[in-house]
Amino acid sequence: MFSSTTSLLFRRAATTAxxxxxxxxxxxxxxxxxxxxxxxxxxxxxxxxxxQITGIIxxxxxxxxxxxxxxxxxxxxxxxPETLRTETWMEPTFGEGPTSGYDHVVLTGRGxxxxxxxxxxxxxxxxxxxxxxxxxxGSRLASVVTLTKDMDxxxxxxxxxxxxxxx
Length: 167
Fold this sequence. Notes:
Blueprint: H1 4-27, E1 38-44, E2 50-56, H2 61-68, E3 82-84, E4 90-92, E5 104-108, H3 120-129, E6 139-141, E7 155-157
Parallel strand pairs: 1-7
Antiparallel strand pairs: 1-2, 3-4, 5-6, 5-7
């Protein structure tokens, strides 16, 4: 059996280890709260009515619309052809990009300039599905735009839908 001296040393070591573990956990930053993961967006529908919605950072604009019950048509789908890794580097991920252009939106206001740049396949779908006078500087496909904290307060205009239910 252990002597009382060994037992005392063991308890002191365990207490010190617990103290060190507690200090380590208190000094590291906590996980983000739910509030830190949410942003506010203003959606303007074709009639001009405004609605403020909550978006989740890391989700697409299309997913945020779906969660809020806003129907903007079918999703463009398709895996991303590239992913932003740093401010200067886009990693090719070899996805085909969007496969349609039904979920067209126009982004303006605070945060609109923080959206990833328009890639070739997204630009091609916008041009194939929409007339030239319906495409603007802020035109994007909602399923391609991934929300970030910088987009808090952005205004999203939803144009009239094009016919997507042909037999």
